[in-house]
Amino acid sequence: MPGSPTCKARRKKRPPPCRPMSANLQFPLTLDYVRTAPISALSAALTKWLAQTNPVCLLHPHGFYVVLLERNELEEWRFHFWPRGPRAVTGMPAFIHTHDRHVESRVLQGQLTNTLSEVAEVPSGGRPLYEVGYDGDRHASETSNVLRHTGTRVSSAILCHNTVQRGNTYHVELHAYHEVTVPNHVATSTLVCMHGRAPGAVMVVGLDGYPETIAFKRTERRADDFLVQLST
Q1: Domain CATH code at residue 211
Q2: pTM
């Protein structure tokens, strides 16, 4: 049931385990290192690896690029990039959501605003609450992303805004409701660690007027789509 930013949602069946992977970035992908390393060194190493390997990446439904860097039983590391200009949204333009893991993200370029909200069930009014599911590996373009209306309606109230500049880090607790906004005129990138997975579904505060079930697939791209906008 929705509530405070640390509330837990219903249990759901997990997809099959995904294969471990690790990018050769020439620096350790550990929280201790990434929190304190010079931002120019992190940016330069990542830009060099992206240029040399041109890895496959997926477009997130909220319009930013996701490059999977490392994945194991304990952690998942990603590079996120928001290009300048309007960003296409896939599925439903609903941005308040949760994660089933803690999120720690360091801004490498540009800036973003992280907003935490308190979400509570209401008997009427409010907005529909959706549950997120995947029919396979979420980092594979052939995987269907599915949003299912839970039958619950919720209200949301902003708890805090935090604008995060280049070099700084922000943290989101697992099952906390949050949204990230990036100005259209700013290209922004982050190095993200997701860790400490716990039972409970990923949830989205939806919008009226959309189907009870929304299914879509993420578009596959390559890193050279955005390399020209990276700065070190």
Answers
A1: 2.60.120.10
A2: 0.89
* 78 part of a folded domain: yes
| Residues forming beta bridges with residue 169, ordered by sequence position | 106
Domain extent, residue 177, equals 26-229
CB burial of residue 157 (10 Å; 0-12, 13-18, 19+): exposed
CA–CA gap between residue 117 and residue 204 (Å, rounded): 12
CB contact at 8 A, 74 and 17? no
Query: What phi-psi label fits residue 91: left (phi over 0), alpha (psi between -120 and 50 degrees) or beta?
Result: left
Tens of pLDDT, residue by residue, the chain (232 residues) = 454 444 333 444 444 455 556 788 989 999 999 999 999 999 999 999 999 999 999 999 999 999 999 999 999 999 999 999 999 999 999 999 999 999 999 999 999 999 999 999 999 999 999 999 999 998 999 999 999 999 999 999 999 999 999 999 999 999 999 999 999 999 999 999 999 999 999 999 999 999 999 999 999 999 999 999 998 7
Is 13 within a domain? no
SS3 181: strand
Round to whole Å and give the CA distance between 170 and 179.
Answer: 12
Q: With contact defined as beta carbons under 8 Å apart, do 218 and 58 qualify?
A: yes
Write out the H or E segment, with its range, that includes residue 147.
strand 144-165
- How does strand 144-165 pair with strand 127-134? antiparallel
Taking 3-state DSSP, the helix, strand and coil percentages for the chain, each rounded to the nearest 5, stand at 10, 45, 45
